[in-house]
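Subject: complex prediction, re-run

Hi both,

The earlier run crashed halfway through, so I resubmitted it with identical inputs.
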Amino acid sequence: MTTEVGSTSEVKKESEQLGADATKENPKEVAENQQNQSSDLEEEKDSKSSPSAKSQSSPHRQKRQKDPSESRGISRFIPPWLKKQKSYNLVVAKDGGDKKEPTQAVVEERVLEKEEPLPEEERPAKGDVEETAQRKQQVIKVDVKEETPSVSGPETQPAEEVRKEREDEKEIQEDKSEEAAKRETKEVQTNELKAEKAAQKATKKAKTVQCKVTLLDGTEYSCDLEKSAKGQVLFDKVCEHLNLLEKDYFGLSFQESPEQKNWLDPAKQIKRQLRNLPWLFTFNVKFYPPDPSQLTEDITRYFLCLQLRQDIASGRLPCSFVTHALLGSYTLQAELGDYDPEEHASHDLSDFQFAPSQTKELEEKVVELHKTHRGLSPAQADSQFLENAKRLSMYGVDLHHAKDSEGVDIKLGVCANGLLIYKDRLRINRFAWPKILKISYKRSNFYIKVRPAELEQFESTIGFKLPNHRAAKRLWKVCVEHHTFYRLVSPEQPPKAKFLTLGSKFRYSGRTQAQTRQASTLIDRPAPHFERTSSKRVSRILDGALIGDADQSLRKDFPGPAGEVSAYGRGAVSTATAQDGDGRRDVRSPTKAPHVQLIEGKKNSLRVEGDNIYVRHSNLMLEDLDKAQEDILKHQASISELKRNFMESTPEPRPNEWEKRRITPLSLQTQGRKGDHLFKDILSMKEKHQTAATRTVEEKAQEADKKRAPESEGPCTGAIDAVKSSHETLNVVEEKKQAEVGKDERVITEEMNGKEISPGSGPGESRKVEPLTQKDSTSLSSESSSSSESEEEDGGEYRPHHRVTEGTIQEEQEEYEEEVEEEASRAAKVVEREQPVPEASPGKQAGASVSTVETVAQENVVAPKVSAEKSVHEGALKQDVSEDTEDEQHKVNGEVSHVDIDVMPQIICCSEPPVVKTEMVTISDASQRTEISTKEVPIVQTETKTITYESPQVDGGAAGDSGTLLTAQTITSDSMSTTTTTHITKTIKGGISETRIEKRIVITGDADIDHDQALAQAIREAREQHPDMSVTRVVVHKETELEEGED
Amino acid sequence: MGTSGEGLGRCTHALIRGVPESLASGEGAGAGLPALDLAKAQREHGVLGGKLRQRLGLQLLELPPEESLPLGTLLGDTAVIQGDTALITRPWSPARRPEVDGVRKALQDLGLRIVEMGDENATLDGTDVLFTGREFFVGLSKWTNHRGAEIVADTFRDFAVSTVPVSSPSHLRSFCGMGGPHTVVAGSGDAAQKAVRAMAVLTDHPYASLTLPDDAAADCLFLRPGLPGVPPFLLHRGGGDLPNSQEALQKLSDVTLVPVSCSELEKAGAGLSSLCLVLSTRPHS
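This time it finished cleanly. Structure:
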């Protein structure tokens, strides 16, 4: 199983990732978080009532599953088995959380795999679908049962299992590592997580651990610490030992691999950062003072010298021969004093390492220069050493290996002034801190959003591919710390920070350079006596090696992730995604995805919990590796704050990346048409699904819609606000499954009804939706992204693409938001057209009528044009499938994989949205970038790639590559389901950018629908939402058995 | 170290190479260069040498011209010198590669550390390299490739070496130079301005920038032959060559302007940066 699991897990991971937008690691984290949360809930439940735990857990699981299923919604496009796997995986993970035994999880997975084939079949055949659904349910149930016995297993265990699997495939995620640590520490897990936690705390508190810290002079300092001690405790001890007051420039690091050095976060518990690594640390300079002469104490400079000598000897700080000699000569002067022919002639200089490769010539030159330093005190020699060393171009530059958007190996150097990009030894680009608007990472991608250059009009986001997620996070943290330390007067408060907006919660909590300088002026003590020892210098170099050995275990994990990364290839890298958006999107996406696939009810719940979802995702995305479950809650809270801030934040006046991205102008008409196609495709997809279990699907969709309804309800039937209760939703989900399988539409509908209000015209709702798009673009975007993601998740094939796209999408969405707002302020022309578009033959089901109303609003404002297309489909869409399906599928694949999923058709969402993304700016040379910018065609290459990834097939169907799916909402009532899809497209034509918003509203239902009313609502909503924009086109497709086309 | 920028232009010696007849005759023409007045070119070259020796007080070494090397006069392409290190280049044109031999020997004799390119895939013309006193910019041009730039970075490790794409059919130094330790001088052409913008992005140091109407006017040499405290010189193209840029050059304070003319040699692609190499035999003093 391990192998199988690995493959499946990978797929799952990918799917999850896609769904969550999070990188592989992120997904894991997300999953973990979810698991944790769910597990917490479960635990609580368990604690309350062990017997009920199973049932409760099942709902949770279901929910979780639902999440995955939601992602599956994306997966629709993806082969069913993949989807199932994912979902299963999720389930497993959840279960795993309950379960302690990995084997069980494996078994489950296997089962799932076996079942997988069935699910594929499901789509075509209702019965199959039902069966699959049942099977899924069964499986889940089974898992639950299994879990329950082992239930003692806390969240961590399941997560661990999942992690294990994932780890095999991929890097170890932070969470995993944490969990792993937990595992080690807590080998014995209590049934209840809480109990475990408590036990852990107790035990940890009681226990002490011996820490060994390698100091800069090569000596080792050891001390005993409480296991629960935070990094600050150890750091303070070390500094006390060193008699160091100006300690803000320094830090403790630990290496999880020879090449990966992590800084110990003083604010967090050591054990959580180390995980299962040995408690070995090195004391290092963390922030190299740009001007060492401003340090107050000689002892501080001395330690800096020691660090630099290490850096030089190791080659991290390259020097010319002359500089090696000069610095070496100062070293001799400082450690040996004035040159003494008698004493030093016999001195073996090989004890010193002046350079990575030390030649006799160099030693001779050192001695020659040493003679010229006569009279310099050790402190003066150190100062001279530093004066020369600080001018070295690589002084204080923290290098990180990465790849640019084209897959070229580069290095990212973080320094006091900003971010440097190196290719080989050559600096090919530079981003000063003031130019960087935002730093983010997602999975193994690292992104910076930079201000437009002088001649550029738009901000651009540049993506880099790091070897793995941890590397990306490490880089991100280093950037955050450096920026804060060197550029800010005081550490910024996470929520309000405009720089690094939505990053993880992590912020540099220490003193900034300005603060430490000020503090240094207050130092009032006689210069401490310290001994400069040369005897220790040899050992210094060994630090890295020592640490590396310990971490080999971790290394194992890394290869996996790297492989994945490679798989993603350039595409991922190339896509530049907005950071914030990603995080958010990720968060939401998981939730959504699950809803789609498994449970609509969840969607409702999600909706209700919108913030939470957001939080979760953000947590996952933003979360620090070290964070424990406890922290997560805090995280969520902070995230919600962030979210609020984000929402509140005024849109940036500047044009978004979108414009850049959208190189190819799309004519409105074409878009509209495309939209139509998409729409049709979607419909067809739905229809296909419907064919399997048309009404059931619809109902589900409707349910989903209801959940989402608040957003998009407009034309649709009234049901919306309705139920949010998770329990209900869970039930609904099950029912849906059943419905899918057996067409228990009625049941579902009933439940739906109970939860939701009967379908009616929901103009108000629709209105709500639109505003949401503008105002809550984030939320909307997240939703849309989620849908797309979910789809992606489902499709194993898309994964890489999806991932990439997801990131991009989020950014775009964010941008969208901004744009939208901007647009809102702009004046617009209003042109309304109504184009009746007859759609294919109505579904088989009698009474089903499909009407599509597309409203296109165009603004011919200089900058953005916004076209909103709203398509309202009323009636049953179900049956049309057969014809369109093929074509649609193609489109779907290209555009979005929505269609594939039987259950999910409701979600429909992202017709082309997947493409949305990316404005990838190729990193290459600065000059190149400028060129690009001037041309306004900055990102093209990347985008193209992205597009191809996501929707290779799209071209035909989706001329609208440029379109972004903002919102996909499905409102379901007994007889009707409404789906609203919003595409935002920006096109730049000769300096004029057009923003087009296409909204497609699909109303599916058995009951007769007042099409005129729906249309009126759609138009009204469009106007309300985008007062500045004009409605250019309204297309109504109506499909009925009897009726084919109506306006 | 010299990274402070204070070392910019410090020099004790100047190296030039005579104008061969082949520059004006067949071989030069064969190289696609327009015919030029050999006598005028040689006269310009002689004046340049005189200014370097008499006006600036440098030790002038003049390599004898070789008829087989029509472009040997442009010895600025054959070496990149900073401090005590001379990187012997590998010119893009295979026909010009023999030019480095004479230069190498002369620099070796002056006590410089000689670094060879040693990479068959690397091409580097010395006039694609701009040293600002704090860092290097290497123009990636028709003549210089990434590998060549990489070797520059490998040779002068103390310094940041940044690459600057050069779009025009010219060398980086043909449209920009240093007007002072903190001042970049550049022409107003698109390629020049683009390069300056790129450099502004790449550098950690705040340079002032002076834009001259003529690209060629920016190919100037900031030289500090004397002891610290003595106003440095700026060797630049005079009013006879480029009258439009003279006024702008007056904006450079703290330098003594030394105009020279090389309008005839320019027809062969020569500029001040390619006509002479300057170095200091005691760079660390």
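Chain B has one domain: 41-63+72-272.

- K.
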